[in-house]
Amino acid sequence: MGNDLEKVLYTEEQIQTRLAEMAQQIDADYAGREVLLVGVLNGAVMVMADLSRKLQTQVTMDWMAISSYGSGTKSSGVVRILKDLTTDILGKHVLIVEDIIDSGLTLSWLVSNLRSRNPESIEVATMLRKPEAAKVDVDVRYVGFDIPNEFVIGYGLDYAERYRTLPFVGTLAPHVYSS
Ligand code: XMP
Ligand code: MG
After folding, report:
1. Structural domain of residue 132, as residue ranges?
2. In the structure, what pLDDT confidence band is assigned to residue 3 with cuts at 50, 70 and 90?
3. Is residue 164, in this structure, part of any structural domain at all?
């Protein structure tokens, strides 16, 4: 990726270590109950793949695609369902799996949407969160890392659909998105 990367925030090893800790916490909390992991496409694919495989808890998986972001770096606040869940979540323990929480607008919309379908419980796990960018308060039970309010890429996160496959999380050099 040439010099598009500014710096590495979390290495592959740091991410995997943190995910293992989160998985232990989730296993302890759900204590033998079955959990439906709801991944938010596309960003959460890497977190979903790695976190789910570290869990002892019995899980099933479903996916939603929602859009609140274009190809730019600012949240629009407008949420649209591009792909809905395939399964009925009524009476299930739902754990939303997210890549990143920025303003929290997307997540807050998602949580109330899913809550209206009457799951038994609903919680959120996210790899990254930007506390300084929060515009709404959302209860997030599992957070990988709190990060500064900078645009990040890698480990599922994109800029204009690129860089998702990087195994680490880094910041993008400003020249990439300001030019
Ligand atoms: P909000 O503001 O609604 O945004 O919490 C959440 C969604 O916005 C995307 N997002 C990012 N994507 N690097 C990215 O690649 C970032 O730094 C970033 N911040 C927010 C992401 O899709 C997330 O689900
Ligand atoms: Mg994105």
Report:
1. 12-148
2. confident
3. no
Q: Determine the Cα–Cα distance for residues 9 and 15; give it in Å rounded to an integer.
A: 10
Give per-residue pLDDT as tens, 38-61: 999 999 999 999 999 999 999 999
CATH code of residue 26: 3.40.50.2020
Q: How many CB atoms lie within 10 A of CB 167?
A: 13
Inter-residue contact 64 to 38 (CB < 8 Å): yes
Give CA angle at 141 (117, 156), nearest 5°. Answer: 85
Q: Is residue 160 part of a domain?
A: no
Distance 93 CA to ligand 2 centre (A): 26
Q: Please check whether residue 153 lies inside any domain of the structure.
A: no
Alpha carbon distances (Å) from 121 to 35, 66, 90, 92: 10, 21, 10, 7
- Does the pTM surpass 0.90? The reply is yes
Contact 36, 92 (CB under 8 A): yes
Which one from 4, 99, 102, 137 is the annotated catalytic residue?
102
Ligand 1 closest atom vs CA 109: 3
Which atom in ligand 1 lies closest to the alpha carbon of residue 75? 2
